[in-house]
Specification:
Layout (H helix, E strand, L loop, with lengths): L5 H4 L10 H14 L4 H14 L8 H11 L5 H13 L3
């Protein structure tokens, strides 16, 4: 599987309209997920999402880019399972 740095991932044009603080938060999240299993990662992702300001929203392209970045090292089955869980939660 491909291993990319957070800075490389943030070069995706979907992240262009995010402010600096949000990009930095995402970089920290991405770094904290490296080397973790799917079971370890999901609570970290959920905590990150809960910590975001209530008025903050992401475009569909930004959500897709973040999920792709976070799930880049997951198998197809793991990706599908996480996506199903996030859909159930309305994310």
């Amino acid at each position: 599987m491909e291993n990319r740095s957070a800075d490389t991932i943030l070069n995706d044009k979907a992240f262009d309209c995010m402010d600096k603080n949000t990009k930095e938060a995402f970089k920290r999240l991405y770094g904290s997920l490296q080397g973790r299993s799917q079971q370890e990662s999901l609570p970290i992702i959920m905590s990150f999402l809960r910590s975001m300001p209530r008025n903050m929203s992401f475009t569909p392209d930004q959500k897709r880019a973040m999920l792709n970045a976070l799930l880049v090292n997951s198998s197809e089955a793991e990706r599908n399972r996480i996506m199903d869980i996030l859909k159930l939660m309305g994310i």
